[in-house]
Specification:
DNA recombination, CB, 2 domains, Integrase/recombinase XerD, DNA-binding, DNA integration, two-stranded antiparallel ribbon, hpI Integrase, Chain A, globular
């Protein structure tokens, strides 16, 4: 008898979805429209998963066609997501945004009442904000050292990716999608093309990172302009974002176990982007420059980092004065 196994909570089995010809027809037409719109494959894949949940609920639980649903039916669906599936408000908003697009694509008007009512009541505005701590250079150095001192065959590549994430402030998906065509190996300037906002921008990396990148590149077999820089161990395909996230997570866990990083620090790969934003603002770079460098679609996103840092400093000063 494995007592440790018995002590662990079992993960609930996902509720099966009944695939029908009608469902596949809706899904196929949705995929065609989104591909024509130029939406990323990963986004389409995630949306299709949610769309199948919605179609299954409507046809199997409510026994209604999608063009027959009324306001009360959409309320039932979102209550189902909340109460039965335990889906948080952030993800519910993704379902809401998906349905807006889906019903617009199919020119169906029966979603309009629920959409207008929800926007008027701001049902999906009160979303939980995922809290990640900003990472600073000192903590990043510890993480990089931990990876560099390990025995992984891909540690050089993994360290370069983390250094580039810090230098450029890029999203992980933007870095893993870089090709040799995107990087000027002489200057260290990098064209970021596969962006979330579909707007190209230019960023840069430090001389040290560039030298490491050159070293890594010299040991690669395939490096034509169209080749991805960061490939998997077999050199067959680009590295997955999940891989670098896992490498980062393992290093953070070990450093927490050794007491080098506080246990209450919540650090993820995206913390590097947060940290770069705060670092640039601390160094006095104008907010509009930081916005462009990081590729924020809205100035409000950049202001969040500025205000968060100001609040942190002010709160600390006020607390220390009261001691």
């Amino acid at each position: 008898m494995d007592i440790n196994k018995m002590l662990k909570l079992k993960k609930p089995e996902p509720e099966p979805i009944t695939e029908t010809k009608e469902m596949n027809k809706w899904v196929s037409e949705f995929i065609d429209a989104r591909e024509f719109d130029g939406i990323k494959k990963t986004t389409i894949t995630n949306d299709v998963t949610r769309l199948r949940v919605f179609i299954d609920f409507s046809t199997q639980k409510l026994n209604k066609e999608l063009d027959q649903l009324q306001n009360v039916d959409f309320i039932k669906f979102f209550n189902y997501l909340d109460k039965e599936k335990g889906i948080k408000r952030n993800t519910q908003k993704r379902y809401f945004d998906l349905l807006k697009v889906f019903y617009k694509i199919n020119r169906l008007s029966n979603f309009d009442e629920f959409k207008e009512d929800s926007e008027e009541r701001k049902r999906f505005k009160r979303c939980e904000v995922a809290h990640y701590d900003f990472i600073d250079r000192e903590t990043l150095t510890k993480i990089i050292d931990m990876i560099a001192e390990g025995r992984s065959q891909t540690k050089v590549r993994d360290v370069i990716i983390l250094r580039m994430l810090w230098d450029t402030g890029c999203r992980a998906s933007e870095v893993v999608n870089l090709t040799y065509f995107d990087v000027d190996m002489d200057t260290g300037k990098i064209k970021v093309r596969n962006t979330k906002g579909k707007v190209e921008r230019t960023v840069g990396c430090s001389k040290d990172t560039l030298n490491l990148l050159k070293y890594y590149s010299n040991h690669q077999i395939y490096k034509t302009p169209k080749d991805y820089i960061f490939k998997n161990r077999k050199g067959e395909a680009k590295i997955e974002v999940n891989w670098i996230s896992e490498v980062f997570r393992k290093a953070v866990r070990k450093l927490k176990e050794s007491g080098d990083i506080p246990n209450n620090k919540k650090l993820v790969v995206h913390s590097l982007r947060h940290g770069r934003a705060v670092d640039l603002l601390d160094k006095g770079f104008p907010i509009d420059i930081v916005k462009e460098y990081l590729g924020h679609s809205s100035l409000e996103t950049t202001l969040f980092y500025a205000h968060a840092k100001e609040r942190e400093k002010k709160m600390l000063d006020d607390i220390m004065k009261s001691l």
